[in-house]
Amino acid sequence: MLLFILKSENMLTFRKAMATDMLLYFEWANDEEVRQQSFQSNPISLEGHKKWFTDKISDPDCIMLLFEDDHNIPVGQIRFQKQDESGYVIGISIDKSCRGKGYAVMLLQQSSDYFLKLHPDKMIYAFIKKENIASVRSFANAGFGLNETLFTDEKSVLYTKQIKNENS
Prior knowledge:
By secondary structure, the chain is an alpha+beta fold.
């Protein structure tokens, strides 16, 4: 098991998701607010989630990270899914008991730093509904830039993050 310890005001650790995390991810995915902010907002069935989760934790093009606080209480998760050869799409969810405490920015900063060390030549894409002001602020505060040059529709915005090279 990989465990990463990152020091901050609130000590957080993260590790790759495991099969035993399936029900926790299911609860997070079906949280009412999470469903409202998702582009596909219908509830998720347990059977469908089991298959999806099992496939994702073994997918080499997917990185799923589970974050816990200094009392080993799950705070949230980040998922990176390969979109194309240039980059990965990031997704985040925070446990409802932990929202509004600044965890989203910490998770986004720490996970994107980790990801970009593994994949320094890739871009991270974050597609966010325009009305999801909390996520828009979190991504901006975590160092993601609003990208108006890449496709977004009238209902969403695109934030991106990558390592700047000398020629950028």
